[in-house]
Design brief:
With about 325 residues, the chain is of the alpha/beta class. It is about 30% helix and about 20% strand. It has 11 helices and 12 strands. The protein has an 8-stranded mixed sheet with strand order 6-7-8-3-9-10-12-11, with helices on both faces. A 4-stranded antiparallel sheet has the order 2-1-4-5. β9 and β10 form a beta hairpin. α4 packs parallel to α7 and α5 crosses α7. The longest helix is centred in the middle third of the chain and has 18 residues.
């Protein structure tokens, strides 16, 4: 990725300090987000996707905290901003759509008023101007009868409409970056497709960059420009979307893709990656994936691999893989 980044996460480390020990939930993650692009973060539950997003938004709470790295937003390091300074950045320059809108929206407050509040917090406009902005964004995100829905409470809306309200709230101040944490998990496939099309449309029309956190590789293939595959708090592979699906290089990525059913193949049983994500308090000494990897060598159990270059001839951007098989390609991370 050679262009200037709107968001540049560098070697981010976020740990939780518990009675049983220090948990490295995010362990040296570096992610680059170009302007107007959609970047996917994929991986199993518990691999650190949401913790990375919460760290970027400054929403980690005790006993968790960012212990290292930098978060550069629009050329400004926001890693150690005060809570007051962060409140000016959140919603205005960077926003987030949470996984379950029913728990993110205030149940005793009309949804239009909640979106209006975001505008009044960040921009100097009158209440009437803010209300008009809310109606405009409701229309833009495909909410029917916006004037009626303005006064609706969350429980009066369907899951799809609630998620559209959340997208509208995230987009209303035209932020440079929007983080979507599994925004379609609770929705049926028809509404999921509508929400994904809407996000892509807003990205193209407003130039907002999107980080899409998901476990659905089909969603990634459909909307993302770049992909980061995470496992046990680390990025295991990063590449352009086409390159990742055409040449999956890390054994973990290969396993994820092999587990997806294919229409042109007959199989009695789907492929599964044996085992589970390791306990972050007791990670393997070497590669964090070594105990589940069917390509692991002796070295994998005692040494931690760096992120190596695995660029193929047709790729225009770097293809990074955290695996010793690609050591000859040269080291990408520090």
């Amino acid at each position: 990725m050679r262009e200037a980044m709107v968001l540049d996460i560098r070697n981010l480390r976020s740990h939780f300090f518990t009675a049983k020990g220090e948990v490295p939930a995010v362990d040296g993650v570096s992610i680059q987000v170009p302007p107007g692009k959609i970047v996917g973060i994929v991986g199993e539950s518990g691999c650190g996707k949401s913790m990375t997003a919460m760290s970027v938004m400054g929403l980690l709470r005790y006993p968790g905290r960012v212990v290292g790295g930098n978060i550069i937003l629009n050329g400004r390091d926001i890693t150690h901003l005060t809570r007051k300074e962060l409140s000016q950045v959140r919603g205005n320059e960077i926003s987030m759509i949470f996984q379950e809108p029913m728990t993110s929206l205030n149940p005793v407050y009309p949804v239009g008023k909640q979106v209006q509040e975001a505008i009044l917090l960040h921009q100097k406009v009158t209440k009437n101007e803010a209300r008009e902005r809310v109606l405009d964004i409701f229309q833009a995100v495909g909410i029917p009868e916006p004037e009626k829905r303005y006064y609706s409470y969350p429980h009066q809306l369907s899951g799809g409409l609630r998620q559209r309200v959340m997208i509208g709230m995230a987009m209303v101040c035209r932020p440079k970056v929007m983080i979507a944490d599994e925004p379609t998990t609770a929705l049926d496939v028809t509404i999921e497709a509508q929400i994904l099309r809407l996000m892509k449309k807003l990205c193209e029309e407003q130039g907002t960059s999107i980080i899409l956190i998901t476990h659905n590789m089909g969603v990634v293939a459909e909307v993302c420009d770049y992909v980061y595959v995470m496992y046990a708090g680390k990025v295991m592979e990063q590449a352009e979307t086409f390159a990742l699906f055409e040449h999956p290089s890390h054994p973990y990525t290969q396993g994820l893709l092999k587990s997806i059913p294919k229409l042109d193949e007959k199989a009695e049983r789907l492929y599964t990656i044996e085992g589970v994500v390791p306990n972050l308090l007791h990670l393997p000494k070497g590669c964090s994936f070594c105990t589940r990897c069917d390509q692991a060598q002796e070295r994998c159990f005692v040494e931690k691999p760096c992120l190596y270059e695995a660029k193929n001839d047709h790729e225009t951007d770097s293809h990074g893989v955290r695996c010793f098989q690609y050591e000859s390609g040269g080291q990408l991370d520090e």
